[in-house]
Amino acid sequence: MVMPWSLPLASPTPRVDLAIVGAGVSGCALAAGLRQRGWRGSIDLLEIGRGPGGRAATRTSRQDNGLRINHGAPLFNIRVQTPPALVKALAQRGVIRPFSGSIQSLDAQRRLGPAIADGFSDGSLWQGAGGMDRLCGGLLDLAAEQGGALNRRFGTLVRHLRPERSKAGVSWTLQDASGASVVEARWLVLSGTLLAHPRGQQVFGWTEIPLEQAAQQLADPQLSAAQTQLAAIDAQASCNLLATLPQESAQAWLALPWDLLQCSPTAQERWGLRRIGIQPLDDGRCVVVAESSPAFAAAHLDVYGSRSSAAQLLGAKPEPTAEAQVLDALRDALIDLTELPLTGAQTQLMRWGAAFPIKPGLDPSHRLCPASAIGFCGDSLAGEGFGRIEGALSSAEALAEVLAAQL
Fewer CB within 10 Å: N-end or C-end of the chain? Predict the structure, then answer.
């Protein structure tokens, strides 16, 4: 009798049918998509952050229960006429809702104008109902409703990928930074590029590229091609200033005629800011999120927020002085651009070293490598939605369709 992988075995390392690395939009959407297609095998979802969402998460505070900050993506857009099916499912449940705020643009002379085509603010606009974290939270709820084991491992760094080939095929052991085994999986999906990209060596001092090492061991031409393409993807960084204003200071910001302000190319050159969002809180306070321009972020690639996952789990060493200088620069630019004070604001820095992938991305023909029992999804796959949440959703649905037939 063949024992299914989803049942406990003698090994101290848990075994599952599928391990998904990354609980951003695509990783969560893949779990939901597989369940909607009737697959009920066991899933381990591993995420370095303390919750799902990635850039589409909502930052909270253990010391401030009223604080909720959509710190990476204030909304998402769908540009295709037929949206991913998961969008409809989430909208029907009230998990996401159409964005109803005002979007305006600003030029270098502080002149307001209509929204500009920046790739993120056209098409149909959506946001999480109550916070962008509802997007990934809703996707995981959809997956859980369908049944099947779904284990969520937050605060978990996957550092090494160890494939093993046997008569039954390829299986994967995922290990942490110490080399301890976290989980063994019959199939593996990477929903991000970190484990396939040389930035792990360049930024965090890793001695190897985990997926490259695994591809060399397996000698699978399709996986080698996928690894090569993933490793070649460049990306834009992003530095975000998060400023929480007390009620007495928030009123002037909340009175502005826009909820989301896009900076024109000339404005970006002048102030180093790309987009500014205002988010009211239930107690009368508000949060202002100022996203840096790509040029500003590129000039400060080595500066990490002291609270970031990169600093806490990936080994990046935060520099308090450099972090304070970046915060001051963004704060000064925001004050100068808006001509409004940030009196009493509590500020923090949120930074992504690879926030926005740059084309061409991974060829969709390599989204699934059956001979190596591995698949890929995320906004780094080429096609409509590349570099956006739409791409993360659609790539996950496409992978679920072909992966369900293999599992």
Answer: N
Q: Which residues of 162-176 are buried (b: 16+ CB within 10 A; e: fewer)?
A: bbeeeeeebbbbbbe
Enumerate residues 6+ apart whose C-beta is below 8 A from 222.
366, 369, 371, 372
Q: What are 58-73's pLDDT values in tens digits?
A: 999 999 999 999 999 9
Nearest partner of 86 among 377, 373, 361, judged by Cα: 377
Are 209 and 201 within 8 A, CB to CB?
A: yes
Give the E-state strand segments of 257-362 in sequence order: 260-263, 273-280, 286-292, 346-357
Q: What token pair was written down for 133?
A: 């974290």
- Regions of the chain short of the pLDDT cut 70: 1-11, 305-318
pLDDT tens across 47-59, in order? Answer: 999 899 999 999 9
Give the alpha-carbon dihedral of 35, 39, 41, 42, to 10 degrees: -20
How confident is the model at residue 306, as a pLDDT?
61
The Cβ of residue 118 has, within 10 Å, a number of other Cβ atoms equal to 15
